[in-house]
Amino acid sequence: MADVLVSTLVRAILGNLNSLALREIEVARNLKTELQNLQSTLSTIQAVLQDAEQKQWRSEAVQNWLRKLKDVAYDADDILDEFAAKALRWRARRQMSSQVSDFFSSQNATVFNFNKAHKLKQVRQRLDAVAEEKNKFHLTEKVGEVEVDDREWRQTSSLVNESEILGRHEDKENIINVLLTSLRDQNDLSVHAICGMGGLGKTALTQLVYNDERVERAFDLKIWVCVSDDFQVRRLTKKIIESIDGSPSEVRELDVLQRHLQEKLRGKRFLLVLDDVWSESNEMWDRLKNPLTRGAKGSMVIVTTRIEKVALIMATLPIYHLGYLSEDNSWLLFKQRAFQMKRKEEYTKLEGIGKQIVKKCGGVPLAVKALGSMLRLKHRESDWLSAKESEIWELGDDGSTILPALRLSYDHLPSFLRQCFAYCSIFPKDSEMDKSNLIELWIANGFVPPRGQSELHEIGEEIFEELSWRSFFQDLTEHNDGTITCKMHDLIHDLALSIMRFECYIFDDKKLLEFPEKIRHLHIPMRPAPPFHLEASLVKKEKDFIKSCSFLRSLVLGGLFLDPKSSLKHMRALDCYMNQVPRSLGKMIHLRYLNVREYPSISISVKRIPKSISNLAHLTYLNLSHSSIKRLPESTTCLQNLQIMILSRCYYLCELPKGMKHMRNLRCVNISHCGSLKRTPPEIGYLTRLLELSIFIVRKDHGCGISQLKELNLGKELCIKELNNVTGSTEAKSANLITKENLKSLSLIWGKHAGECPHNEEEVLGSLQPHSNLKSLQICGYQGLRLPNWMIEIPNLVSVELDQCERCPRLPPLGKLPLLKFLKIRGMDAVKCISSEFCGDGVNSFPSLEELNFDLMPNLETWRTLDGRESFPRLQSLTFRKCPKLIELPEFPTLRKLRIWTRGDYFGLFSKRDGLGSLEINDLSILTVVPHGLLQNHTYLEELTIESLPNLKSLSNQLDNLSVLKHLDLRDCDKLEDIPEALQNLNALESLKLVGCDSLVSFPVNGLHGLTSLRTLTISCCERFAFLSNGVMHLTQLEELRLLRCPMLNSLPEEIQHLNALRTLTISDCDGLTSVPNQIEQLTSLSKLEIGLCPNLTSLPQGLRSLTALKTLWIRGCPHLERRCKIEGGEDWPNIAHIPSIQIMPYEKYYHGIRIFHGSLLTRLGDWKLPRKFLKSQSDS
User: Fold this and answer.
1) Long-range Cβ contact pairs of 551-555 (< 8 A, separation 24 or more)
2) Is CATH 1.10.10.10 what the domain over 415-447+456-500 is classified as, yes or no?
């Protein structure tokens, strides 16, 4: 049964009634009595909500009452929200200058007051009627801890049937090793916590450990206590004594109990299991633990819990996080249950379905056992298929052991945490959820309760952490950009969906008859592209479905552009693709969260934001990243509640609203990668709550100086541009960078007028010293003669980039930085020598450096190091680009990747590099052949890239010794005429790419003979390449073949039939191709075939009919095939009719990168391509 969660909504409405904004508004004064009555009714209802929400699972009548109450509460919330929105707009009007237009005429205000007053009265009357009904349910007022079902089935004992527990042998041995190690070390009382979600088998694993013979011998006493959620010290002390004695205890006083326990444990080595602990009280655990310390050294407590916070409080040893069962062990456990009463011939036909059911369980033993037991007495295939297709809650009594066990964790949550968790069901199973976005969605929907002066985002962080600790979230990952994502286990997702299934809905066109009556939160996920002829009807079905959902408060569109005509008047959170802002945006007055996503490779994006955005008075989160806007309307500054504004990668954005200083609630202004931005708004220093500002552009105008940063406690990244406008040391110090301890990345950039006063620039840079917490530093365009000493005083630096510091003759002693991993030095024209000073004066220089890049160093000649000192002990990657005078490098023993881009005397750069794993040779125009010996010593080389050698004609036999080479990439070698037959010696080669080799006509017949490991072959932009040799028959492991922009290619060899492992075949922009051989019918593994811009390809072979594994066919810009593959009537339609997903696009539509249907933009993503003329440079990246 679904939960109806009303507490959070009622709390939010009461908060709105008490808000300052609502009290200020004139209409509130006119309706004072009505609002007071509404508040009184809601307060009365709130008092009994906790009891009602607990009883709803046992009383359908109570749940129906809660559902009715919630419908009315939503309406009340909407109308109060409208009042508050008007109040906020009035407040903004008073605070703004006369430039901002008047929002409401007195006539409009009167109409507003009358209409809303009438609606408010109606809602209040409906709410009174619902409140009256509560009396017949005999609900009681409750405040505080939630009562949790404590039925008998939750009790555990130490007894175990080992034959029923599979796949936990390694876990058992790990824990026993911990016990015995603690015993040997004679530690004082140790506590080992086993933590994991419900149903994983923590208790069963502990029972295995408890009953193991080695454990029996190791301890004088063994005690088992099932704690559950009642962590009373007296009760648990009594249970421990009873477990030791084997009989009940009549003692009631805690002091007497604890003294008795001390005597029983004194001098004895004991093992105590506290199973199923929920209490997060440090104090209670300390009180229980006191008498336990009287045992002998080596005594141990094992705690099992679902909550990581409990484990952290109690454990003295590292927490043991119990993982999921492997798929093989899950299958064995399922077979043990499901097939116990079936004959071999009976269950053989059910095995395939059974394995899919096991996958559904996601490695949770409880679910595996429950579903296996459920199917034990079911013999019909239809029953098994029904179980496979059903959600857990749809299994009725058969699934009754799964959800209650999982639901226990949910039942322990306060109402706001329940609501936040249940809302996550709006995301499809196995989705990666972005932590920051999830918190903003919670806030937008009113799920995060205010608490004193704390920011809602901080409280949201605590909620996320709490749900993670309680195993509701898993696979937490921090990405390189600082983004944190998580997932939900499929069964936990089932739990969330079972709770919210009357309000949350994930669109499925196959289940349109089963959707809830009043959907409040809707997600239309990205889906695989359907056959072309079904595309338009499916898009229409999705759009019509959105229109039919008239109560939506959240809408997430994964692959569908929002219809510009959409009217979403109740919307709180909107996350979607847009190519045009809907006309109704200004009417979405309840909107808090607006995320306009833009697919980067499509040239269509939002270009203009209407002035009516100012009506979104409640908006707190605005994300317009990747859009094509040039500016935001000045009316944006009326968004007084806006806290987060993300405009990253808006490449055309040239200015922000001048009045941004009025947006006092802003916490984040992300304008990273906005290269066209010419200025930041004046007096931005007024935004004292600002924690993130990606770019600040210094100007000499009033309110635009660097001193605006003084009082801002900025974090994350900050790029300060046009530092040439800073007059001197005093002004630079006013930025107060040294106090900004949360700043992780800092870029200091001088403009085009830099260098006019080098001494001043040295003063300025010297006074811009950041806090020592900084991790990344970039200095660009600086024209002083010396770099500041403070650079080596920032011990946490991980990344440093020095760019276009053209007048500095020496490199600073960066070798002193202990954590530096990435160093890039570019455009330092005055540097002639890398001296020992660069390494610093320590014994071990650059101890952490992994990647070092030198670029555009035209005068660099030598690199000197001092003997006897260890330098660069971890260097993995070294790049030299356009350093023509450098002819020799020091030795780097750990170097694995070397990239050389130079036109100078290169050979000394490659010598003594026999330990390389990756080598890239680029831009050596003097080479016509690869010199003898250049590649001979690289016996460990796994990746080789040779690029931009325009005069290279032959590789001779330099490939002979590359026995472990896995990836070979030859690019832009215009005169390369042949590939040596030595290619056949590359038995380990997995990937081969030939790009821009215009003189290459074919492969050698024998050159492919030994490529038994090749998985991917790409030939692209080779103007004269005419045919694959017959040697292609030897590529029996090839999985992907790509033939792109080879205009002379006219056919494929019949030997292609031997490519039995081929899964993907792509042929694009091959003007000369006229046919595909019928032998393609032998490609039994082929699952995807793409053919594009082949205007002379006249037909598809009948052999396609035999390809039962072929799931996707894309045809684009092939006029003959377009005609022959028409549904039903085309000559080639019978050859492809069996393929599930077919995409056929005419040349004109493909060329423009969009698909047009009856004059309208077809709004589905997933298969966009750029025009041919833009693709050559990135054809095979």
Assistant:
1) 551/74, 551/518, 551/519, 551/520, 552/519, 552/520, 552/521, 552/522, 553/74, 553/445, 553/520, 553/521, 553/590, 554/423, 554/426, 554/441, 554/444, 554/445, 554/520, 554/521, 554/522, 555/521, 555/522, 555/523
2) yes
